[in-house]
Design a protein that fits this description.
42% of the residues lie in helices and 12% in strands. The chain is an alpha/beta fold.
Length: 498
Amino acid sequence: MSKSTSELPRTLGVLGESAWNEAKVAGRSVKDELRGNLICKIQRGEPLFPGILGFEDTVVPQVVNAILSRHNFILLGLRGQAKTRLIRMLTTLLDEATPYIEGCEIHDNPYRPICRRCRDRVADAGAATPIAWLHREQRYVEKLATPDVTIADMIGDIDPIKAARRGQDISDELTVHYGLLPRANRGIFAINELPDLAGKIQVGLFNIMQEGDVQIKGYPVRLPLDLALVFTANPEDYTARGKIITPLKDRMGSEIRTHYPAALEQGIAITEQEAWLERPSPIQLRVPDYIKEVVEQLAFLAREDKRVDKRSGVSQRLPISALENVVSNAERRALRARESVAVPRILDIYSALPAVTGKLELEYEGELKGSDAVARELIRTAVGKIYDQYFQGVNVSQIIQWFDLGGSLKLDENQDSSAMAKQLGGIQGLMDKTKALGAGPGEPDAVRASAAEFILEGLYAHRRISRNEERGFAAEEKKREPREEGKGERPGFRRQYN
């Protein structure tokens, strides 16, 4: 129910006579609130989790089922799979504002106060009990689990200073200093990376999940909290390393697996949504589709590569950061050359290695080779795959012949677009092929140069031409003829040089 702040009831008596009480929403539990608002969204056909892409037919239906079942649930997935973003969006299923007893540390329900102070206050003031309002964003509490988290941090402790100031006995309920869980009362409490939470703290979550209450140390203080609990974890930590105690796992209503984008198009859509591409700049920034596709294909290949640790995963942040770096490199080049438009090239992807190597956790074989070398190989393979999507079966013999006749071309990532386009235009048949990439004769030099360079990189990826530091692009070296038998190499043996 939506009203301006000034129109909201300010006392318990007025609240009881208001629309909130008539609609029976002011005193309902958090899980009932999530369920009720979710049902309304489904009936109205509204998007449930806008901005969460690729989960529409997999993860989202399972989350919906968990909420409709009033479950506490856990999201299991590798890094960069939007787990935290998804649970933070659960606040959109809460009421815009909810009433609580003014001044209460744990936001007590006016109709069912649980702390001693609020019970006494309602008993004394009755209908005049002051009411405050909590916005939905204030009802979400998130904690990153670390080994140093204590019971006092999560549940609470007795505060001797508070007891001394108020002249109360140390065992009095009013001397309690509440932890994160009680302070999240009447909201959503999320714990990220649950396996990193110490075992004794996990035990402390038992009561709240099973009985719905917590106990402060050994004191006779029991708080029946109203919470929706959600967790995230890496599947490897959750299942294989025994870092989550079995009774806690047993109390989770639903276990939901997240995943990386299943198709290249989904990954590109996520990267475009998250990457900072629409940036204020004195020049126009144009990112060709094939550049976006190569960057995304790089992440897909890394997730499948045996040299990359699959238990760690390859975050979706890799293509996001890489594409931002690629665009920045093109922007820097255009600014220095005083060009009006900046268009990324494949060379810019190689320049974006700092945004790639730090996100690859390598296995032993990859460590031996080095992250830089592994990333370069992945880029080359990605270019080859995307090249095939545009030029599979296309006759490029003219271009290859130019190199076979002795032509070579060395390109510099800092070279201005007009000079590069002029160089590339000297290769017979090359500029004609750029039309398939939307880089016809009427396009700026930056667009045409980027497209032509992509074609050359694709031919290099398929070993139709070679590329090295000294000569740049050149003809692929011919294979040697086999030596005579007994002269060092067995018959039929051929060695290929790149």
